[in-house]
């Protein structure tokens, strides 16, 4: 920590010698002595000091004039007055000048140390406040530089926006302040999104979502938004702040990918089968999964679906869709996807997003097979007891397609070599299913699977890597 700098104006040599001895107790201070007010002011104009200590009676310029002159330079300067203060008017004048620390002459050692320590505490609080303000300023700069930011009053009227907001919206500050965000709202956005947003933030909760906007020139941009209510000491809302990131290119990429998927499945059913199977294999190939994994999972899903009572059409549909369960892995980096050994917590959180990525890629297709694939991609990591992801669904809240694919995927994955493990023996796999019955897996489906194990083993032996 930098030393505290003190300017001491005193014309009495005896007093100076005495306080020099007192100051030796404080090794974290640096004291500069001057003999009168004019010298003190001249030195102050060229340097910064944490504390100014002054006598009242001095030649050239007295202590009161020195304090007034310094306050014109820095109104927050902290002063300590050394005086007899025998005159009541002098005391009143010192208080009017907002001098809070006094030591009477002749100086009493204990009194001096007590007052000086009180003064030091004020200096430290001032330093902490300055540091906090500096950090807040830097935080604000960092946010302004990296995000699209705006604030509104309780009615949603814009009271502040940063340069990034004006740049992407192509409106000036004058055009935005005093308006609501309807000024940039895209007419294609579903009004229910904004209804949900207002209900959420008025309940003093944060809201997250993707919003499509229109700039002044008619161009479209998409932002990933976080809207927060700001509360006062009484927990009452005083304003709202919106923090946004431009995800236009990412969303356009997803739209383009969706269009490509729609084109890829617009032909006859046989073509759909080939495309779906190939796309399912992409996710497995990226993560270096075994060659026939998606084929085996497809066959397993059909068998288990029929055993569970699905109609032939639905069982066939699941067979076609189940290879897409891990298509979302195309959105996960190789470093995480193919990492040998256990993932860190942060890496696993990223890994888990493949379920939502796959769902988002497939959900908007009008094709039944793609809609089914979206369900499989989204729900095959949900668990019967609610401990799965991405939505922690419980029991029959999980779609039957997701519950079936979960068993088939895990059965095949455990029996295959992966980058992070060796294949398990069959007995160990079956023990896991028995142990996880009613926890990870639908207990009824586990019973059907175990009671008809021979059918699944035929498929496993038929499609060996």
3D structure, described in words:
With 465 residues, the protein is α/β, with parallel strands linked by helices. It has 3 domains: 4-142, Response regulator (Rossmann fold); 147-246, PAS domain (Beta-Lactamase), CATH 3.30.450.20; 251-462, Hypothetical protein af1432 (Orthogonal Bundle), CATH 1.10.3210.10. It has 20 helices and 10 strands. The protein has helices spanning 13-23, 37-46, 63-73, 88-96, 109-146, 163-169, 173-176, 191-202, 248-264, 269-286, 293-307, 312-321, 334-337, 345-352, 354-362, 368-379, 400-414, 426-436, 443-451, 453-462; strands at residues 4-9, 29-34, 51-55, 78-82, 101-103, 148-152, 158-161, 207-214, 220-231, 237-246. It has a 5-stranded parallel sheet with strand order 2-1-3-4-5, with helices on both faces. Strands 7-6-10-9-8 form a 5-stranded antiparallel sheet, sandwiched between helices. Residues 285-290 have low confidence and may be disordered.
């Amino acid at each position: 920590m930098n030393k505290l700098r003190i300017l001491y104006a005193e014309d009495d040599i005896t007093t100076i010698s005495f306080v020099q001895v007192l100051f030796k107790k404080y090794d974290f201070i640096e004291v500069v002595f001057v003999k009168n007010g004019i010298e003190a002011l001249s030195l102050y104009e060229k340097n910064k000091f944490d504390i100014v200590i002054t006598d009242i009676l001095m030649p050239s310029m007295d202590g009161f004039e020195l304090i007034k002159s310094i306050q014109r330079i820095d109104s927050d300067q902290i002063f300590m007055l050394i005086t007899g203060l025998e005159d009541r008017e002098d005391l009143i004048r010192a208080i009017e000048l907002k001098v809070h620390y006094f030591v009477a002459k002749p100086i009493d050692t204990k009194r001096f140390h007590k007052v000086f320590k009180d003064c030091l505490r004020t200096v430290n609080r001032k330093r902490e406040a300055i540091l906090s303000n500096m950090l807040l300023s830097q935080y604000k700069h960092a946010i302004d530089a990296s995000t699209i930011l705006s604030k509104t009053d309780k009615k949603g009227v814009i009271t502040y926006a940063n340069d990034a907001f004006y740049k992407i919206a192509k409106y000036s500050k004058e055009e935005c302040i005093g308006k609501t965000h309807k000024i940039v709202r895209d007419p294609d956005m579903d009004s229910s999104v904004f209804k949900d947003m207002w209900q959420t933030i008025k309940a003093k909760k944060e809201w997250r979502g993707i919003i499509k906007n229109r700039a002044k020139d008619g161009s479209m941009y998409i932002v990933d938004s976080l809207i927060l209510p700001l509360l006062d000491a009484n927990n009452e809302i005083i304003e709202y702040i919106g923090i946004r990131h431009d995800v236009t290119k990412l969303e356009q990429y997803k739209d383009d990918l969706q269009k490509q998927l729609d084109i890829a499945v617009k032909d006859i059913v046989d073509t759909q089968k080939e495309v779906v199977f190939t796309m399912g294999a992409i996710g497995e190939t990226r993560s270096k999964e075994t060659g026939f994994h998606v084929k085996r999972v497809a066959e397993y899903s059909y068998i288990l679906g029929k055993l569970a009572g699905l109609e032939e059409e639905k069982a066939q549909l699941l067979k076609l869709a189940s290879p897409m369960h891990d298509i979302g892995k195309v959105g996960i980096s190789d470093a995480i996807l193919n990492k040998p050994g256990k993932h860190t917590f942060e890496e696993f959180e990223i890994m888990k997003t493949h379920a939502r990525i796959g769902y988002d890629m497939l959900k908007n297709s009008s094709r039944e097979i793609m809609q089914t694939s979206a369900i499989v991609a989204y729900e095959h990591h949900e668990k019967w007891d609610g401990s799965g992801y991405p939505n922690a669904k419980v029991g029959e809240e999980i779609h039957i397609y997701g519950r079936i694919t979960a068993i088939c995927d895990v059965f095949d994955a455990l029996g295959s070599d992966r980058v992070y493990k060796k294949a398990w023996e069959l007995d160990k796999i079956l023990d896991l299913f028995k142990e996880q019955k009613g926890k990870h897996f639908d207990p009824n489906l586990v019973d059907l699977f175990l009671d008809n194990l021979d059918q699944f083993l035929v498929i496993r032996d038929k499609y060996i890597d």
